[in-house]
DNA sequence: TTGAAAGCGCTAACAA
DNA sequence: TTGTTAGCGCTTTCAA
């Protein structure tokens, strides 16, 4: 056999030095209850003296547990995910686990490919803003521990930030400012959340007697803002609801370039309250949610839950609130 | 033995089905050259048919290679690191490896603890903005594959963004605007880059006949900005160089609150050109560097290099350039 | 070019 | 409570 990293202290060294069997060492270190307190103390001392550290790979092989969690985000470039990444990293670390991070680049194939590749290396997957179809996700959830962020599917544990009530807050706010026509600048076609947002906007706008139009889709990035701004300007709505803050910020810049005054000429609202939303110009009115918390809870759910399917899966909905800033104002005309 | 995840197809299944030995299957899949082309083709077909996927853990045990790279950042909350994380993730993925992400929360102990914990689980470590001492890092580099970002130590491979020339650009820019007194709003005491920046500022300022003062340290975050802004205002310098953009943006906000006009009353410069630096108010003049590239190169170095120590370690210095925006202007008085 | 077999470091059933 | 022992799934030497 190749002796590749052969220099590390192993459980055999500790066992020999302590005068016990390897299984006893294993137990002393992992199952404190199943071994004599004295023996245990002795073993621990020896292990310390020898600089012993459990080899996580060797432990994972027989046990099948790697103490590792994978998080996939659909676009690592989007600051929106930073909160989620942060929260997931914190919680994973707090649980003594390790976080693996992957970017799936808006591609459902990369999502499933990554899962395939990491199967066996991780104890479970957290997928934020999955672009896979409901069927694909359900099927994967059958074979793997899996929790979702910003996506809900029956039978699969998930954490989302409330979009219905949040969207109601947006529309209510705009209505109170006298707006009667809003445009939704849509996000990616495969985005579940984009579909939900539009549904909620349309339904709520109707309740408030407002007209609502969907324009796009646009790339949910700052660079998508120019086209989105032009589109909404051409459409004539007095209020624009962007799919996310990135797009909203891009629109703000385009409006500034074109001499369109925000919020005098047009009001702009975003979703997510990302870093920068409070200091762009003008500061952006946006729907804020606790995304770090979402990351934390998704990891909790993953580590706590048994394989989904049997019992009804937990679906967590976090509250959202509208951060009203200077990008929204009274309707003109 | 416990048969925990016993349902997956193994190399034994493939060997049996293909009528060959497991070693042949192993070779066919990993060492294409060392096996008959026909046999190989057959084995691959069988493997595919059986839905076989190599178990990465089982492969890692005898080989000692996990195909995994760990990246530690000193504060996952700081958008500055997002570029680095992105670049590292991309390059890791491109190399068919997996990225593990860790936050060390500005703590040298958490850094070394994390390394200890992950030893055996990863093939190497990339540490961005390490807070450990030179000695600690050198010692770790002796025993592990390790590359540094934003830190240089003899004998350890590293990638940094040029700070000397960059700082020269800043000072030159301020001098050309007629400033004769600058203040550096310092970053964390343990930060190598903070020390370097101050050295470069002081040296270059002297060349340009400017006075330079160091104030702080301040938390390198937006919340540190208020104290920093007040400090520089009290000091009387006409130009402020913040340790990073986060701090600079915080200062901008404080100045706005206090009615201090930027750049009329005071010029503000940052480092890093983070997301938001171009749309804060006023847009920030800042030293831009290719941090995604730094992340990519650090991973390259890690995967390409043999254990450091013997040959002279590679030290990459990426160029930087000053993004001049509206936060700097002619000196008053 | 292929197969047999040992072993990577650990866990856990079983027996003592 | 402890030891013996058989694996976990794979790689790699060695011999054929």
TrEMBL record, chains A, B:
<dbReference type="Pfam" id="PF00356">
    <property type="entry name" value="LacI"/>
</dbReference>
<dbReference type="InterPro" id="IPR000843">
    <property type="entry name" value="HTH_LacI"/>
</dbReference>
<dbReference type="InterPro" id="IPR010982">
    <property type="entry name" value="Lambda_DNA-bd_dom_sf"/>
</dbReference>
<dbReference type="Pfam" id="PF13377">
    <property type="entry name" value="Peripla_BP_3"/>
</dbReference>
<dbReference type="InterPro" id="IPR028082">
    <property type="entry name" value="Peripla_BP_I"/>
</dbReference>
<keyword id="KW-0238">DNA-binding</keyword>
<protein>
    <submittedName>
        <fullName>LacI family transcriptional regulator</fullName>
    </submittedName>
</protein>
<dbReference type="GO" id="GO:0003700">
    <property type="term" value="F:DNA-binding transcription factor activity"/>
</dbReference>
<dbReference type="GO" id="GO:0000976">
    <property type="term" value="F:transcription cis-regulatory region binding"/>
</dbReference>
<keyword id="KW-0678">Repressor</keyword>
<keyword id="KW-0805">Transcription regulation</keyword>
<keyword id="KW-0804">Transcription</keyword>
<dbReference type="InterPro" id="IPR046335">
    <property type="entry name" value="LacI/GalR-like_sensor"/>
</dbReference>
